[in-house]
Amino acid sequence: MSVQQPRIGVVGTGSIGRAHLNAYRRAGVDPVAVADVDAAAIEAVAAEFGATAYTDIAAMLADADLDAISVCTPPSTHQVLAVQALEAKVAVLCEKPMARTVDECALMVEAAHVNRTLLTVGFCHRFQPEIEAMKAAIADGRIGTALTFRNRFSGPLDGVESSWFSRPAISGGGVLMDTCVHSIDLIRYLFGEIDQVRALTATTATSRGPALEVEDSAVLSLQSTDGVLGVIEASWRTAPGEAVVTVSGTHGRLHLDYATMRLTEVDVDGNESVVEVTGEDRFTRQARHFLSCVAGTAQPRVTPTDGARAIAVLAEATASAGPHG
């Protein structure tokens, strides 16, 4: 393998697949292979990126001499595709959610272990520069003892009733799997392991769309093993959208608004200041980190255990909620 130019493939060329393709390109590596079940779509993407097109991952793994792949397909395929690659000794960056179930995650973890091959999960918010700055400020005691965490990722996903996102056999769940899996990882990244979780979920027929087979809105309450209390809110049906992370402590508060990418700190007297943060976008930074891991010059920031643990926490949350609350 050439450390300077590893051979990368991307499986799945929808919106998230294109995000990975563009991120690799920005990181200085042009993927050499792309795969998708849509033959017409894959030819166009392959031409755009100068890659070889495949409609079958087995053929891609056999022919393309790959060092690593991104798996950017719907969740129902993650376990099978990732295990195929790992058994071929090809490193895997699997998009979130890692898989639909705890058992599927376990099969992926086992394949990575048995084949001694890199497996990581696309928790891209760990690579958001403002989130890294927030974590550093917490560790430095800038807000005193952290006590509460609030995260809301919401916004209208119009037409979701017609997409695979709302089909539980493919998605594994609704907004919990789509956005709350990121939120679970965020609180674990900032504060460590989750000790307790409870959820309320709902799906409601409104002017924005019909009720779904999966939850379109959810609220979770959590507690870390260190005692930090968390609230996570998510919805596909509320407008306008909101994407915020707030951490409050005994001597201050940190707040990130993704709409403006503005991280602010409020001190114990209520004085607000902007925390200056610079850095590339999270997908590019995630791609650079993955490439470094493939080259053996870095250890993965997100382990298979992190991916599996997020699904385990969501399974517990889903069980506590019952059928849509």
From TrEMBL:
Gene3D superfamilies: Dihydrodipicolinate Reductase, domain 2, NAD(P)-binding Rossmann-like Domain. Residues 132-254 form the GFO/IDH/MocA-like oxidoreductase domain. GO terms for molecular function: nucleotide binding. Coiled coil: none annotated. Residues 7-123 form the Gfo/Idh/MocA-like oxidoreductase N-terminal domain. InterPro entries: Gfo/Idh/MocA-like_OxRdtase_N, Gfo/Idh/MocA_Oxidoreductases, GFO_IDH_MocA-like_dom, NAD(P)-bd_dom_sf. This is Dehydrogenase. It comes from Actinopolymorpha cephalotaxi.
